Amino acid sequence: MSIDTPPADAGYRVIGTRPVRHDGADKVTGKAVYTSDLKLPNMAYGAFVRSPHAHARIVFIDTSAAESHPGVLAVCTSADLPDPWDKVDNLGEGCVNYAHLSGNVLARGKALYKGHAVAAVAAVNEHVAQEAAALVKVEYEPLQAVTWVLDAMKEEAPLLHDERITFASTDAEEAKPSNVSTHIEFEKGNPTAGFEAADVVLEREFRTESVHQGYIEPHVSVALWNEDGRLKVWTATQGSFVVRQQMAELLKIPVSQITVVPCEIGGGFGGKISVYEQPVAAVLSRKCGRPVKIAMRRDEVFEATGPTPGSFVRIQLGATHDGRMTAGKAWIAFDAGAFPGGMIGPGCMCVFSCYDLENARVDGFDVVLNKPKTQAYRAPGSTHVAFAIESVVDELAAELDMDPIEFRLKNAAKEGTRRVDGPEYPRIGLVQCLEAARDSEHWQTPLEGPYRGRGVAVGFWFNAGLKSSVAANVNADGTVTLVEGSTDIGGTRASLAMQLAETLGIRADEVIPQVVDTDSVGFTDVTGGSRVTFSTGMAAHKAGLDIQKQMIAQAAELWDCSVDDISVEQGIYSAGDHRMTFAELAAAADANGDPIVGRATVNPQGATNAFAAHVVDVEVDPDTGKVTILKYTAIQDAGCAIHPSYVEGQMQGGSVQGIGWALNEEYFYSDDGRMENASFLDYRMPTCFDIPMIDTIIVEVPNPDHPYGVRGVGEVSIVPPPPAIAAAIAGATGVRMQDLPMSPPRLWKALQGSE
After folding, report:
1. Residue 170 pLDDT grade (very low, low, confident, very high; cuts 50, 70, 90)
2. Count of C-beta atoms within a 10 Å radius of residue 292
3. Cα(35)–Cα(234) distance, rounded to whole angstroms?
4. Average pLDDT of 634-658?
5. Residues whose CB is less than 8 angstroms from the CB of residue 155 and which lie 6 or more positions away in sequence, other chains included
């Protein structure tokens, strides 16, 4: 369902339709090539040696027994990596410090979490590699571990990095080593005066556990470091160029010596941007002279790649009796995992982003502890803080005896609202999303029955622009080959091809999109930040205009007229009595003129601002604490839905992940810092038996910064589910949950306490 500005009103022929995806046949028949499918001649196989301790000094590593094991070709440790240097780079969705990244790839001096890679082995097959890895002798000096963010902030907590001093965004912190890596402060207006003007003030505390992106395909890469010094890497990644960038810095070789080939990717959601196994496979390849494949086991993925932060959030919110919010304060602590640089920045920027608050204060803390380095996961940081702020907003509405949607509408951010971190919104669609939720059949239909409740919540994500490059080649048969560098995770081959087709006035299936390696297209940032359909789509549109200009020139030459005499409408080129379709002109140009190749690079700045509102009905079993989702509706502003099916799929997929985060998913740690549920058997993700059909309402408030009005749609859908479900549980039971996940044991215990 789509409302507000249907594509038909804009006169589009391709945009807003639902063509079959260009890679559909390969995907459904199993012909698509994933990295695990790749087998090169004389290929070796790698395996890691990982720390059994959550925190330990590495006294020594003895690799001699492994090196002498039959079938072993090479062994490496951090000593085989160049000395790291303290340089920070932006990877498109988060920054990286290469000294920390190198230490995460292979531990230097200390193992900082259980599963931290310490060494690696390459052998003639996977079984021999695993056997040899078990022969590497590592002597550890175990140290005290800490896995909860507030414990890590205590003065007596064990230090992970002896030299780390807190970096503050304003006044300097006390200059002594601390697990608090960064303290961020934002403020607008006068929060003290704002709270004094409030008639009602609520303050609540919230906790969330780490969760994983849960992609089905494990991390896997193949590296071939050739005798000529060139390195080629095949990998499952969200950004081939950022893999090249990281490899060049970690291995100290020029980017021109590295080619990264992005294979098909079995899910990422932010977790496949940082490198893990790729540099190790490269080092092993250089040492043994063969291509080396490394594929992680599922427990390695859980224990040694990037989950979300665990978090503690304290929210204070004030409002007047007539429902106007007057002030807000947020105190936010996110764990960054073993190395600094987590998701605290976006968390602080998102916490009050849905509301027009004149007075607000945010303090955020990035904290290191003995867990794997955190990474992005679909709107990183926003889900944590939305659970907190939306829960307080819901409780405040109840305190004021106001409808929760009307209360949000009264305070909703709109064009001209300034966020607490500074930016002012252009035209945005939050109000329209809330109005669509209020007017929906779901919200208007009464909910009946015991232990049933309905909840609503909103969410925000910035969405990014960043750099994208494309080239488009016109073929003699009137088709166009689109060459681009954005990894396709959610159907972007189709969304990019459709924008190019719309620009050229041809059908979507007449564009042939190809995702190519880093040698074959200009620099393109990651598939992340909900940026591809927006930014790479903008490049495709620009390349289409370039093609159109060249086609007009060809037509002018054929017809012996001025380019100013030629008009173009929906792929038809005409001047006087002359008329040619795009395909006819392409054939004529191929026979008589120069090849036509359109090119474009873009680097749009700023955010496209995605907002969503979700409504959910639940039923709670008071005897077990189990929550059943009865009905779910996701409403989201897409700006312009290029391919509505894929927009709906993103909305539904993000909602399911948010439901899992709300009800079941968590990293469960023992007292000594071991993850006790590192498998899909014990890490409980939703299945088709847990989720009803998720209804979608696409709102289209065009983004003024895109030629077709596109906003990114991939991430914000994960943000509202936890607070919406918490509100529904409160409606069903009278119990307001403040910790995630709201799992059956945790909810059951809360229900007993309420009784």
Report:
1. low
2. 31
3. 7
4. 98
5. none
The 10 Å CB-count burial string (b at 16+, else e) for 67-106 is eebeebbbbbbbebbeebeeeeeebbbbebbbbbbbbbbb
Q: Determine if the peptide bond prior to 307 is cis (ω within 30°).
A: no
> Cα separation of 614 and 695, whole Å?
10
For residue 8, the model assigns a pLDDT of 44
Name which of 144, 288, 26 is nearest 672 in CA terms. Answer: 144
270, 93 contact by CB (below 8 A): yes
484: β partners: 470, 515
Tell me if residue 403 falls in helix, strand or coil: coil
CA dist 501 and 480 (Å) reads: 9
- What is the C-alpha to C-alpha distance for residues 335 and 352, in angstroms, rounded to an integer? 20
Percentage of the chain with pLDDT > 70? 98
Question: Model pTM?
Answer: 0.96
| 158 CB-side CA count, 13 A | 19
Quote the DSSP letter at residue 510.
G
Flag whether pLDDT at 738 surpasses 90.
yes
CA dist 265 and 244 (Å) reads 17
pLDDT score, position 290: 98
At 172, the pLDDT band (50, 70, 90 cuts) reads low
Kindly state the average pLDDT of the residues 630-637.
Answer: 98
Contact (CB, 8 A) for 363 and 330: yes
Distance CA 256, CA 486 (A): 19
> Tell me, what's the pLDDT at 353?
98
Indicate whether 175 pLDDT > 70. Answer: no
Which is nearest to 437 in space by CA: 413, 403, 401?
403
Q: What is the pLDDT of residue 169?
A: 59
Residue with tokens 């690696």: 120
Identify the helix (H) or strand (E) that includes residue 506. Answer: none
pLDDT of 754 strictly over 90: no
Number of residues that this document lists for the chain: 755
pLDDT at 5 (0 to 100): 39
Domains belonging to the chain, first-starting first, are 7-32+465-602 (3.30.365.10), 41-144+213-304 (3.90.1170.50), 403-462+608-754 (3.30.365.10)
Query: Inter-axis angle of helices 744-754 and 721-733, to 10 degrees?
Result: 40
Task: State the amino acid at position 637 in one-letter form.
Answer: D
Taking CA atoms, 568 is separated from 11, 16, 246, 582, 590, in Å, by: 15, 22, 45, 10, 19
Q: Which residues of 302-332 are buried (b: 16+ CB within 10 A; e: fewer)?
A: bbbbbbbbbbbbebbbbbeeebbbbbbbbbb
Q: Give yes or no for a contact between 371 and 111, defined as CB atoms under 8 angstroms apart.
A: no
Who's near 597: CB < 8 A, 6+ residues apart? 471, 472, 473, 474, 547
Please write the tens of the pLDDT for every residue from 298-335.
999 999 999 999 999 999 999 999 999 999 999 999 99
Widest distance between CA atoms in the chain: 88
**DSSP string computed for 19-64:** PPPTTHHHHHHT-S-BGGG---TT-EEEEEEE-SSSSEEEEEEE-H
Which phi and psi angles does 639 have, rounded to 5°? 75, -70
Radius of gyration of the chain (CA): 27
Pairing of the two strands 2-3 and 694-699: parallel
Of the CA atoms within 13 Å of residue 559, those in its CB half-sphere come to: 22
The answer to whether 258 and 242 are in contact (CB under 8 A) is no
For residue 553, the model assigns a pLDDT of 96
Spell out the residues 6+ positions from residue 557 whose beta carbon is closer than 8 angstroms to its own. Answer: 592, 593
pLDDT digits (tens, 9 = 90+) for 210-265: 999 999 999 999 999 999 999 999 999 999 999 999 999 999 999 999 999 999 99
The Cα–Cα gap between 292 and 512 comes to 32
Tell me if residue 204 falls in helix, strand or coil: strand
521 pLDDT more than 80: yes
Torsion angle of alpha carbons 114, 116, 121, 127, nearest 10°? Answer: 40
